[in-house]
């Protein structure tokens, strides 16, 4: 999702799921992406599903967003996001987590057939129980 204001710090809910061993967890992206779309774009999320792209396994995100800065009309948009790689670090004492990811987005952002590559830094820290 090409985010219009990368300095924005909107509130978005994240949900994590335990892995099969129960000793680690991973983000539940079908839940989390809907919240990120709403928080960053002010868009109405329409759904997230797993799919295959030409880059590999991906998530497809459907959403409605204003058709222009001053428009009240909503336009349907779709983006396909594929993870190309990631590094993660965690500090159990500080209850913090850092993730550096490389993501490719395909879909209509500005024009049909757009392709964008992103380096995404995510910092999560538990503030309360």
Estimate percent helicity: 10-25%
Strand order of the largest sheet: 3-4-5-6-7
Strand content: over 45%
Using the CA coordinates, give the radius of gyration.
16 Å
Order of helices and strands: EEHEEEEE
| DSSP strand count | 7
Span of the ends, CA to CA = 30 Å
Helix and strand content put the structural class at: mainly beta
* Count of DSSP-assigned helices: 1
Give the biggest beta sheet.
5 strands, antiparallel
Which consecutive residue ranges, at least 5 long each, have pLDDT under 50?
Answer: none
Shape: globular
Give the averaged pLDDT, no decimals: 78
Structural features:
single chain, 129 residues, mainly beta, five-stranded antiparallel beta sheet, two-stranded antiparallel sheet, 7 strands, globular
Report on this structure:
The structure is a single chain. The protein has 129 residues and is mostly beta strands. 12% of the residues are buried. 10% of the residues lie in helices and 53% in strands. It has a five-stranded antiparallel sheet, covered by helices on one side. The chain has a two-stranded antiparallel sheet with strand order 1-2. The mean pLDDT is 78. The protein contains one helix and seven strands; from the N terminus they run ββαβββββ. It has one helix spanning 29-41; strands at 16-18, 25-27, 44-53, 56-66, 74-91, 96-107, 114-125. The radius of gyration is 16 Å and the shape is globular. β1 and β2 (25-27) form a beta hairpin.
């Amino acid at each position: 999702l090409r985010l219009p204001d990368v300095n924005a710090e909107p509130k978005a809910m994240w949900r994590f799921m335990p892995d099969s061993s129960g000793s680690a967890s991973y983000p539940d992206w079908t839940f989390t992406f809907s919240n990120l779309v709403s928080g960053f774009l002010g868009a109405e999320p329409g759904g997230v599903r797993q799919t295959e792209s030409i880059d590999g396994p991906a998530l497809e995100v459907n959403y409605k967003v204003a058709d222009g800065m001053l428009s009240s009309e909503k336009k349907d948009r779709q983006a396909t996001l594929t993870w190309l790689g990631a590094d993660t670090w965690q500090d159990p004492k500080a209850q913090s987590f850092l993730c550096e990811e490389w993501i490719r987005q395909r879909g209509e952002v500005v024009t049909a057939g757009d392709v964008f590559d992103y380096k995404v830094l995510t910092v999560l820290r538990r503030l309360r129980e």
